[in-house]
Specification:
A hairpin with a 2-residue loop joins strand 5 and strand 6. The protein is α/β, with parallel strands linked by helices. It is built from 10 helices and 10 strands. The termini are far apart. The strands form 2 sheets. The protein has an 8-stranded mixed beta sheet.
């Protein structure tokens, strides 16, 4: 006897009467979740119709027989889209509220200056500028900018010959404008020297000239040579100069130039006084050792960053504060005291007096024999 659901003539031969899948029931959710769906007989009537259709989530909504499943899949896709949009919106919001700020590059060290006055061991000799120069160690020095000579130039690992020349010529120009310019020497405008500095140093430079202080950072006489116009004026514009320059690459993007020069000025009293020998001139010697640094932008702009200055200057009195301007002891004058050790600004091998001390100007640095006016 045929079981319910069997063909009228019974099960085909070779097939057992008990169907092992008879008890399996495919519920509606399982059927909707199937990835393939068989077309109906009507749908298969087409000559080239496919036997099955896809049951993907995106196509389920278009099948009339799976309207409810398609709606559920559509809602799931919409929820997923909303989640993505919310996550994106949150990321944008957090980015706007806490924007990334790149770290600022480290601030460069400020310019430092050491200015040491040198007191004479005896009365300051006086005379005419020419006679004084001829009797001094500066007799064979160059005059003005001609005494500032560039070293032999060669390229470094990361800088060309032209870039090295640009650094050296800028350093020389700064020496000229800061130690030979008549206005700067007289305590007047220092703008020609200022514009050769990096703009980051303008504030420190301006503060040093407006409110000089012997604090190692705001000595006007560290930046340039200037005389107190109430004390002395330059008697001969032909300043004697001798010294050396050097350069080195200290990084792939940085050149450093060092300078070591002696400047010898003939000065006379601004106003003749009882202690000065009338209008007689005397010599005033300044030794300046500078370090200047250049990056590639500085080379392009023809400017420098002045890192440090070590300055010895005399004859001056140890009681005088040289931070704002030099106050020379003039012809016929004597210092009220001397420093702990003699220092010869013409001798490159002699040890430097310590900062905050007053050195003694070596006798060999004075004109000898002392000429008479």
């Amino acid at each position: 006897m045929a079981a319910p659901g069997d063909p009228p003539d019974g099960a085909p031969e070779g097939i057992g009467g008990d169907d092992e899948y008879r008890s399996v029931v495919f519920d509606e959710d399982f059927v909707r979740a199937a990835r393939l769906q068989e077309f109906s007989a009507h749908e298969r009537m087409g000559e080239h119709a496919r036997a099955v259709r896809s049951r993907s989530a995106w196509s389920a909504g278009s099948s009339g027989g799976t309207a409810r499943g398609g709606g559920r899949s559509g809602r799931q896709g919409l929820v997923l889209l909303l989640v993505v949009l919310l996550a994106f919106s949150a990321a944008v919001y957090m980015g706007l509220r806490n924007p990334y700020v790149p770290p600022e590059p480290g601030q460069p060290d400020p310019f430092t200056a050491t200015v040491v006055p040198l007191a004479p061991p005896a009365v300051v000799p006086g005379g005419t500028p020419g006679a004084l120069f001829d009797a001094s160690p500066a007799a064979g020095y160059g005059i003005g900018a001609a005494g500032i000579n560039l070293p032999a130039v060669q390229r470094t690992r990361h800088f060309s010959d032209a870039q090295v020349v640009a650094a050296l010529t800028t350093a020389k120009e700064y020496l000229v404008r800061s130690a030979l310019d008549p206005d700067a020497l007289a305590g007047g405008s220092a703008r020609p020297a200022r514009i050769l500095l990096h703009p980051d140093q303008f504030d420190q430079f301006d503060r040093s000239l407006a409110r000089p202080a012997p604090d190692g950072r705001h000595a006007a006489t560290g930046w340039l040579v200037r005389f107190d116009p109430a004390v002395a004026v330059v008697a001969d514009p032909r300043v004697r100069v001798e010294g050396v320059m050097g350069f080195a690459e200290i990084g792939p993007d940085t050149l450093e130039v060092t300078t070591d020069h002696v400047f010898v000025y003939a000065v006379r009293p601004a106003v003749a006084g009882p202690r000065a020998q009338g209008g007689a001139a005397s010599l005033f010697t300044v030794r300046r050792e500078l370090r200047l640094r250049f990056d590639r932008d500085d080379l392009e702009a023809r400017r420098a960053r002045l890192l440090s200055a070590y300055v010895q200057a005399g004859p001056q009195d140890c009681a005088a504060d040289p931070a704002g301007a030099f106050r020379p002891l003039l012809a016929g004058q004597r210092a009220t005291g001397t420093g702990p050790a003699a220092s010869d600004p013409y001798d490159a091998g002699r040890a430097h007096p310590a900062a905050g001390l007053c050195g003694t100007l070596a006798a060999s640095a004075l004109p000898s024999p002392a000429p008479r006016p």
